[in-house]
């Protein structure tokens, strides 16, 4: 497909929206025609993000002033709870437009679970069943025919790519999973929050949302589905690290009877052998955020635990790229029949 597809970005003034614009600006099949940001409406994009000063981007507008009939695809980068009504409107009025949602509003298939974890009633249950979970490597075939794609959260992307293949093959006991996760400060969004101020987050490491992080039900939903279960509970604790980008998840798992850490690693190698963005590191090489910064790549490895019958699965990604905007572009490519790697082949930045 050589022609340009017109795109709009909801919430272009946030970190996720900005990274989507960064990638879209150099995508050969994308033309950015609508950028929304209610709090910055009327401003040029370069006034909000100075690193876009050299790009001929449309000015920011309010959501209600956007012309959704002028686009082929909409990328939603709004906070949870604010996307559903807009998505429902676009979905109903413009049936040819594909919606790629980077918020949490359509990730959970059960609306009651959404209400439990996000504290608000789901406002678009009538289109929820049309949403395809946008973990590209797992749901590629469904994404190719979807109108509404619910991109996973950053933590779930890192965790699920490393654990779904193991769960679906029965190589681990999914009832005994402990996940220790760490993310750069951009994962908390661009809004002013006391815990993300330099003096609060710098030179320290902080757990947050312990036992109640909203990515937990998303991870449980997908691992349960992979294992053929109707319900699942696991341990997940996120931490904030004083860096802008990057995410690293360490999952402690119990091996299924007769399995070894080497078996798990070999299965992941075979699973991702033809995947362009997922790499299993060489034996003994531990994934680090430096391996993926600024890229759409994921690096995974498995090492044996000193406790018999257990293994440690480590995965890393850039939370704003493969954990959000990059995966959204990857899904866009799949949904429109474009070569999947188009526009997101940037290599990691190092140092």
Keywords:
351 residues, 2 domains, Dihydrodipicolinate Reductase, domain 2, Rossmann fold, 7-stranded parallel sheet, 7-stranded mixed sheet, alpha/beta
Short synopsis of the structure:
With 351 residues, this protein is of the alpha/beta class.
What is the SS-derived class?
A: alpha/beta
Domain tally: 2
CATH class of the largest domain: Alpha Beta
Distance between the termini: 35 Å
Share of helix among residues?
Answer: 25-40%
- Give the biggest sheet: 7 strands, parallel
Low-confidence stretches: none
Task: Give the rounded overall mean pLDDT.
Answer: 94
Total DSSP helices: 11
What fraction of residues sit in β-strands? 15-25%
Number of beta strands: 14
Q: Which fold name fills CATH's third level, the topology of the largest domain?
A: Dihydrodipicolinate Reductase, domain 2
What is the ordering of alpha helices and beta strands? EHEHEEHEHHEHEHEHEHEEHEEEH
Over all CA atoms, what is the radius of gyration?
20 Å
| Strand order, sheet with most strands | 3-2-1-4-5-7-6
What report would you give on this structure?
The protein has two domains: 5-129, Rossmann fold, CATH 3.40.50; 155-318, 2-Layer Sandwich (Dihydrodipicolinate Reductase, domain 2), CATH 3.30.360.10. Helices cover 29% and strands 22% of the residues. It has helices spanning 15-24, 45-48, 84-93, 111-118, 125-128, 136-143, 154-168, 198-201, 216-227, 261-271, 321-335, and strands at residues 5-10, 30-36, 60-61, 73-76, 98-101, 131-133, 148-150, 172-184, 206-207, 235-241, 247-255, 278-280, 298-304, 310-317. Helix 1 packs across helix 11 (321-335) and helix 7 (154-168) packs parallel to helix 9 (216-227). The longest helix has 15 residues, at 154-168. The radius of gyration is 20 Å and the shape is globular.
């Amino acid at each position: 497909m050589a022609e340009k597809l017109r795109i709009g970005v909801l919430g272009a003034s946030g970190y996720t929206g900005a990274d989507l614009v960064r990638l879209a600006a150099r995508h050969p099949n994308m033309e950015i025609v609508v950028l929304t940001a209610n709090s910055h409406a009327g401003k040029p994009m370069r006034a909000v993000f100075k690193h876009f000063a050299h790009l001929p981007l449309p000015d920011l507008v309010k959501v209600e002033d956007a012309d959704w009939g002028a686009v082929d695809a909409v990328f939603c980068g709004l906070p949870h709870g604010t996307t559903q009504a807009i998505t429902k409107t676009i979905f109903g009025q413009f049936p040819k437009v594909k919606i790629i949602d980077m918020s949490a509003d359509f990730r959970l298939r059960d609306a009651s679970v959404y209400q439990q974890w996000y504290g608000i009633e789901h406002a678009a249950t009538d289109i929820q069943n049309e949403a395809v979970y946008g973990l590209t490597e797992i749901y590629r075939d469904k994404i190719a025919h979807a109108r509404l794609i619910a991109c996973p959260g950053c933590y779930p992307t890192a965790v699920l790519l490393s654990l779904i293949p193991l769960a679906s093959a029965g190589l681990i006991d999914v009832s005994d999973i402990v996940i220790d996760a760490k993310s750069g400060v951009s994962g908390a969004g661009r809004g002013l929050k006391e815990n993300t101020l330099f003096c609060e987050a710098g030179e320290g490491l902080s757990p947050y949302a312990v036992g109640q992080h909203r990515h937990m039900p998303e991870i449980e939903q997908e691992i349960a589905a992979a294992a053929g279960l109707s319900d699942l509970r696991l341990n997940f604790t996120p931490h904030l690290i004083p860096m802008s980008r990057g995410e690293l998840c360490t999952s402690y798992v119990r091996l299924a009877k007769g399995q070894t850490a080497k078996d798990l690693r070999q299965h992941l190698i075979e699973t991702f052998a033809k995947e362009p963005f997922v790499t299993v590191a060489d034996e003994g090489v531990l994934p680090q955020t430096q391996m993926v910064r600024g890229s759409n790549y994921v690096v995974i490895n498995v090492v044996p635990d000193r406790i018999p019958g257990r293994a440690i699965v480590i995965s890393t990604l850039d939370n704003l790229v493969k954990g959000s905007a990059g995966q959204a572009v990857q899904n866009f490519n799949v949904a429109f029949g474009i070569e999947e790697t188009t526009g997101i082949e940037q290599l990691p930045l190092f140092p």
